[in-house]
């Protein structure tokens, strides 16, 4: 324990100046935290670093289990399953084959392939957190793909924990793991709300109770010989709820998560060993498979499933790094003597490199997509868009609605009530059936693509309304310089002012509108124009509609 406390102290002493530089110069924090780890590694023994990495990864996996929202990802879960499985099969096989070709024994090449195939939930979902929060297609896809990959990694961890290829020990490990997950589901469904009721308004008591649950699950996993990461993931699922239900708890856990994210990246840097020529070759191949081949395979599968080229590309860029699960698997394999130091160091070095490059690729994702599109990487022509769209010939003086979520549906209803012609633009395959059955005119393609607007006859439209909270889409609409008035949506007032200055007629800010509507409700109550029961029933109906729609 003393060694761990010393290691943590060194980590924060060294990381502090690097974080100050990142904040001052507005640089990505991941590369600087890894560089801080390389410096800290000079003063920390590898054994303490490995142990700290195990606990750090376990707590981060717990935080991901807590944050997964099935209501958001269920619409893309089937596609995500196919994408995750296809990606692991193709990239993992290439990784194993490459390892063997480079002289790595087949037993170790499996770990090499696993490192290439699995993507980091910590990095991947953190980089698209805005898209997840705004419920955009790519955010839901990225989150659900990582979730499926994590489940597969948990199975591999359980098999590894058996320490043998014999059927009985493996079955025992899998049985323990499934039992922990089953108990987690029961706790989530029947016990956690009771704990919340006992905690009352005390967020601190609820956080302490949650940490206690985490300790119970991790301790149980350790006592039966299962990886503590499996126990931590099960604990996360046990606690998982909609954030609005326990806002104080989730805010507190978010702070804890940020603390361990910093430790995680520093420990990755601390484990980096400067490579030999043999190691560099392994690292180069692993980085190529992870940062180039894996996103390409992911994008190809998503394109095949009907997603537009932009959503497929931007989603695939959230997978271009080595997973923390691959690291914990490599650590446990090293400690069990199943992995040599050479292959372990190559995996660690590649993980550090790809986590740095991933933060950079995410920053320039739009430029990367545009470059690929200009170079003709994606299928040319508009045959698929034409087949999947339905726009009356010669339609004019119409409303173009971007997005067919909750607000988009209301806009469509309003247009139909007024007899106003409209065209809906949407690119989410999960709502395509609803689009076809409920809308008289629609274009199924990405709003960032010029042909989408040509197909929607935007040049003849009376007004264009974006119901999507996406700054790139908003700025793209303004760049087209349509004659029609443009109404946009954003989540913050600063961006709203900028969009108004750039030519938008009106910018909707949901928080501001919600505040104004709340004042109107209170005035109606005070004036006697509405009873409390009527207000409650109206709000319940609105919320139930929102749940049924499932997205914005």
Q: Which stretches are poorly predicted, pLDDT < 50 over at least 5 residues? A: none
What's the count of strands? 6
Query: Helix amount, in percent?
Result: over 70%
Number of helices: 26
Q: Assign the CATH architecture of the largest domain.
A: Up-down Bundle
Summarize the structure in short.
The protein is mainly α.
What's the SSE blueprint?
Blueprint: H1 2-25, H2 29-40, H3 46-67, H4 70-73, H5 77-101, H6 106-117, H7 121-127, H8 129-133, H9 137-161, H10 167-199, H11 203-223, H12 228-239, H13 247-271, H14 277-304, H15 309-316, H16 324-335, H17 341-363, H18 365-374, H19 383-388, E1 399-402, H20 406-418, E2 422-426, H21 432-438, E3 442-444, H22 450-455, E4 463-466, H23 471-480, E5 485-489, H24 493-501, E6 506-508, H25 510-527, H26 532-549
Helix pairs in contact: 1-2, 1-3, 2-13, 3-12, 3-13, 3-16, 5-6, 5-9, 5-14, 6-14, 6-16, 9-10, 9-15, 9-16, 10-11, 10-12, 11-12, 11-13, 13-17, 14-15, 14-17, 15-18, 16-17
